Write a sequence for this structure.
């Protein structure tokens, strides 16, 4: 049986707080509006403060080891969630979502992601409980994903979306008619006496489909940091909750993080190797394991490096036209 700090009471309180926060988000987005920077920054700070306070409470109540595991898992999940934002940004553009409706689409995506992560986390816990071979499986999944992410980054083919190839979107179009215009945040409307889908329903379906892909990657990644299902869940929840506001803070910055996928690929590869070593250590004692504090350091250095290199590359490109202009 997996060891966990998550007692039934702690799980109940956590889920209750999560439901309250989601209800608050739905109340905020009930009246569609384009989110100003001041509002987005305020919510982003709030959702960054929550995990910081939670981590301190975990340290005080349960000790340094689960707290470091939580902070490391949170950094991993937050990094991967920024990748979510890239795809959400492309989906919003592809479906021509009005700016006033963007945050409601993002919120639907967050709720879908939380449900899927919960399912994948429970399945992952069951697999891990069945034997150490699960770590080898998770490690292989992450290593394969890392190779794909880095290969796509090298080719410049990352984050390409073809809406017409999405099975969920094609299926919805076959099942029901789709209106040509948005009708606020409504998913369906009645047209000529017949129920029809709005483009909002299609974009939400597309977001849910991308959530499935991200859940397959992110859950094994955080299980590479901690085997505690409760900590895996809360790291995912905290990372996802702030995405709605973070999107509006970073929407003009995301495209400038051109090397982020290289960093994410390296992080996934590192955690994949960590999981394989953990499995091997259970078979051969002489095989070393990667301590969690070292994992946190490697992840932070990698993210800082790709941020700096992205800024340097952007600056170099901005200066190139000036240097090439005739005197």
């Amino acid at each position: 049986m997996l060891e966990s700090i998550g007692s039934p009471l702690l799980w109940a309180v956590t889920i209750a707080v999560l439901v309250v926060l989601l209800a608050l988000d739905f109340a905020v987005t009930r009246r569609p509006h384009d989110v100003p920077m001041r509002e987005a920054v305020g919510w982003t700070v709030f959702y960054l403060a929550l995990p910081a306070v939670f981590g301190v409470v975990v340290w005080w109540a349960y000790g340094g080891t689960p707290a470091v595991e939580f902070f490391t898992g949170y950094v991993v999940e937050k990094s991967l969630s920024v990748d979510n934002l890239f795809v959400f940004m492309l989906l919003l553009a592809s479906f021509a979502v009005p700016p006033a409706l963007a945050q409601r689409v993002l919120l639907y995506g967050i709720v879908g992601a939380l449900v899927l992560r919960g399912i994948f986390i429970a399945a992952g816990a069951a697999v891990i409980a069945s034997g150490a071979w699960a770590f080898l499986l998770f490690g292989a999944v992450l290593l394969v994903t890392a190779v794909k992410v880095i290969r796509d980054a090298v080719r410049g083919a990352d984050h390409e979306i073809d809406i017409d190839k999405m099975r969920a979107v094609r299926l919805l179009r076959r099942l029901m008619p789709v209106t040509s215009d948005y009708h606020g945040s409504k998913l369906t409307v009645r047209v000529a006496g017949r129920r029809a889908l709005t483009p909002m329903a299609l974009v939400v379906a597309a977001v849910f489909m991308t959530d499935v892909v991200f859940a397959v990657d992110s859950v094994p990644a955080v299980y590479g940091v901690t085997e505690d299902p409760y900590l895996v869940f809360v790291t995912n929840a905290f990372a996802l909750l702030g995405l709605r506001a973070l999107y509006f803070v970073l929407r003009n910055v995301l495209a400038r993080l051109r090397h982020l996928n290289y960093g994410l690929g390296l992080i996934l590869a590192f955690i994949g190797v960590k999981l394989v070593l953990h499995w091997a250590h259970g078979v051969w004692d002489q095989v070393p394991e990667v301590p969690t504090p070292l994992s946190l350091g490697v992840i932070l250095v990698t993210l800082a490096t790709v941020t700096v290199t992205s800024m340097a590359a952007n600056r170099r490109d901005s200066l190139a036209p000036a240097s090439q202009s005739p005197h």
Q: What stands out?
A: The mean pLDDT is 82. The CA atoms of residues 119 and 200 lie 25 Å apart. DSSP finds eleven helices and two strands in the chain.
